[in-house]
Design goal:
Elements lengths: L4 E9 L2 E5 L5 E4 L5 E5 L6 E6 L10 E2 L12 E3 L7 E7 L9 E5 L1
Parallel strand pairs: 1-4, 3-9
Antiparallel strand pairs: 1-2, 4-7, 5-8, 6-7, 8-9
Length: about 110
């Protein structure tokens, strides 16, 4: 099966952040090397990734690794050796409450 591309739009309206496209949630497949992209027309944002179960901060499970803050991550490919399987990510922007959608990565 071909890779799937998921685009998430980050909307920043102080003090709130929202994500368009399934409230920022994504279900990605490592084996298919699915891609994801975050973009904002409202200003820069930062993504922080954590292990869904432990809450420990983990590196972004994508190549190339994104740099923050940004207004566009460009297309990121699920890293083949991404561990853990479930990630939670926080969207942060100056003067805003954090938003915490979930990414699920299947083998």
């Amino acid at each position: 099966m071909p890779a799937t591309q998921t685009k998430i739009t980050v909307q920043i309206s102080k003090p709130n952040i929202t994500c368009i496209e399934k409230d920022g949630q994504a279900h990605l497949h490592r084996a298919k090397q699915d891609q994801i992209r975050w973009i904002s027309h409202d200003g820069p944002f930062t993504l922080v990734f954590t292990d869904f179960d432990s809450g420990a901060t983990v590196p972004a499970p994508f190549t190339p690794p994104p740099t923050f803050p940004t207004t566009d991550t460009n297309w990121l490919t699920v890293h083949v050796s991404a561990v853990p399987r479930y990630f939670k990510y926080f969207v942060k922007a100056p003067g805003c409450n954090d938003l915490d959608p979930i990414i699920i990565v299947d083998n």
